[in-house]
Amino acid sequence: MRTRIRDARPAEAEALSALVLRSKAHWGYDDAFLAACREELTIRAADMTDRRIVVAEDEASGAALGVASLEGAAPEGTLGLLFVEPHAIGRGIGRVLYAHVLDAARELGFKRLTVDSDPHAVGFYRALGARPAPGGSSELPRLHVELAPRAGWVRAWTGGRRTVQLGNVAEFQAQFGPASPSSRSARLNEAGLRASTHYSCLAALGTPYPAAVVLPGTVPAGWTELLCRQLAWESIELYDGLGTGAGGLTAEVLARPALARQLRALGLPFVPWGHTPATGELSGAPLPPGALRYESKRAANTLFHQLAPGHPGIVVPRQWPVPTRLAAARLIVARARVGAGSVVKTEHGVGGSGTHVVTSVRALPPVLRALPRGPLLVEEYIGAEYADAAGPHPAPYTPPRDLTYDGLVDAAGGVHDVGTARMDVAGTAYQGATVGPGAVPDEAASVALRFGHAVGLRLAASGYRGWYDVDFVTAPAGRRGAVPGVPGPRRPTGQGLAPTEINLRLTGPSVAFMVKARLDETRGGAHLVRSLDRVPLGARLPDAELMAWLTELTARCASTGAVLVPSIPTAAFDPAPYLGVLLAARAPGRLDAAEALVRTAAEDLGGLFAPAR
């Protein structure tokens, strides 16, 4: 069911009053009680403006599905009405209306709303962050909704508006070389492109509240409706199955003039996964030449060295550009012989692609076979072999091995800190991230925030505008000095963070920040959000079966106090099927329990299709 919210019209007063009474009657009240409530629940023509009444409307039929009102004057007001047609209850209409009222209240400067709730609706409001308040009764419980101000970075990112999202993952990366730099066959390149198409689905979550989403692949019917229900969005326009073509997704949009006109006519900001010349043409906001220079891992490392002296706690790995695989092998062997690990990288690559860790000569041949001829980068490995013999980090400084800072540069060149996230990295491959209270210890977060902000100022000076992140690994205590036979200054000892790369685009952790911002606003509280980009499925699921299973799984998560948001739904019928999800909860234990539930349910799918014995 596709829903949009609009202002109520004076001519609808009688029809909306009838809707309110039908909704009230849904809870089993008798005729005498409803007759006593009729006057209080009657909506009059003059109320539409005075009470700021809005209607949830079925986009297909135009039928009114629900009604809500924001009453009073800032800073404290009332959620006077929130009623849903009985046949639409349980489809997320109430949540969308509630979120709309909260958004409007924030814009008007309200700090708190009071809700005099029907007893049957108390659970609904409590789940969305409302708390009991004095002055109510058992027949009419009273609750308060505290309206935390919208995060400054959200307004800077979207201008307080809905957006048009472009899932141009492969197009962005193609600016810097093949989508799969280690590929030596058309088959592997095709697999890399297919993986990028799946990953592009994350673009639907590239802002807290999109209006339209453009994707290269075809997504399952019902996916966007499930997103709308979980995140209290009104309907979004979906344009999928466009492919990528030789020029990428945005070129496919530009090749369809009617579609390009339709998207521009929305009058909303375009938010691509990453900037390209084509996205600049579509949006009318191109970046200047050189604005993406720090997407290069070589340029980023140079910038890190320039900034590090002013940032205690930052330890920058040394890096050596080499022209060929043979030159890389010689340097890595020389380092390995004296006990120094190395990381060999391609200059550009996403999610760990083109990056390999070599800690022994024995591991070198398969790594070199997987890399292109060159040029390459060899970087010192900040790893366990540098750990102090005294053992693990002393409390309270216990940073994760991999973490990231996310920020953005607004149109005027202002830098806005978004936050830090704990990343889940298997080997060198990114798997997901956790954001929210306690995800990154305070000391590590403070170091990352200061350094990430300084990086943003340099990006802004280079002409870059948009989302960016800086990835770090923990530099353990007791790092050794210079490695014999390898040129370079003596290395400092002590704990710190080692910056490894800059990403000038949206990323997996950025999506977790977007979902957190939306849930914090619409459900209250401070959520922990965990992205899981690749949950293996025990069986291949066609689209219809996948959506039915996901609907059931979201309900199971909700019963534990967690929220499930399906992020990558297009790989469930791949030869090695998987699913991407985000999970949210207000407590770490519930988040961990939700992840265990999802992984177990995904694995158990295999049992549904096992042959009977």
Task: Jot down its keywords.
alpha+beta; 19 helices; 23 strands; single chain; eight-stranded antiparallel beta sheet; 613 residues; elongated; D-amino Acid Aminotransferase, Chain A, domain 1; Aminopeptidase; seven-stranded mixed beta sheet
Describe the structure.
With 613 residues, this protein is of the alpha+beta class. The protein folds into four domains: 3-147, Aminopeptidase (3-Layer(aba) Sandwich), CATH 3.40.630; 150-289, no CATH class; 293-319 and 375-503, D-amino Acid Aminotransferase, Chain A, domain 1, CATH 3.30.470; 527-613, Ribosomal Protein S8, Chain: A, domain 1. It contains 19 helices and 23 strands. The strands form four sheets. Strands 20-19-16-17-18-21-23-22 form an eight-stranded antiparallel sheet, sandwiched between helices. A seven-stranded mixed sheet has the order 1-2-3-4-5-7-6. Strands 10-9-8-11 form a four-stranded parallel sheet, covered by helices on one side. Strand 4 (76-84), helix 4 (93-107) and strand 5 (112-116) form a beta-alpha-beta unit. Helix 1 runs antiparallel to helix 2 (31-41).
